[in-house]
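Suppose you are handed a protein chain with no further information: no name, no annotation, nothing but its sequence. What can you learn? This example shows the usual starting point.
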Amino acid sequence: MRAIVTLPNILVLYAHPAAHLSRVNSRMVDAARGMPNVTVHDLYETYPDFDIDVPREQALIAGADLVVFQHPVQWFGMPALMKEWVDVVLEHGWAFGEGGTALHGKDHLLAITSGGPQDSYHPDGSPDDSFSAFLPPFQQTAELCGMRWNTPLVFHGARQAGLDAVSVHVETYRQHLAAYPAWARPK
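A reasonable first move is to predict its three-dimensional structure. Written in structure tokens, the prediction is:
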């Protein structure tokens, strides 16, 4: 008798306002789309007018075991549509607060790219600080919603990176998704 293996459901929420110019994110999305248990949801393609269908989005995220926020870093944060999505979809009483348990126990992964090199993201310009100083808003959002925050996958210098470095990162991303939940924080 053979055991039936159920793959975890992975939802990639992709937000790139200029996806046609992307050197790294577009390749990451293509790699994710080729996986049988991954749903890639392109927010800018779906909501070019920013008029988000909240019930539809809540149903999508409710069915996921792993929720991936994939986007470029813009002004040290997320793109405008991703922020709007967070504001309207992760509502009080559904995602957090009294009765807001819809996302409890789900895993969260931040998969982001930065146009500049890592040393351009030091909060006070000193080489002793790290990019992690910019992550608390992302982490707090996940944790407020009861999701488990996992170590982000970050690719710096996307604008200048060579094709070999991009290919290595894209394959790392694909393998990371394929290996889930082995790398996730324990429940």
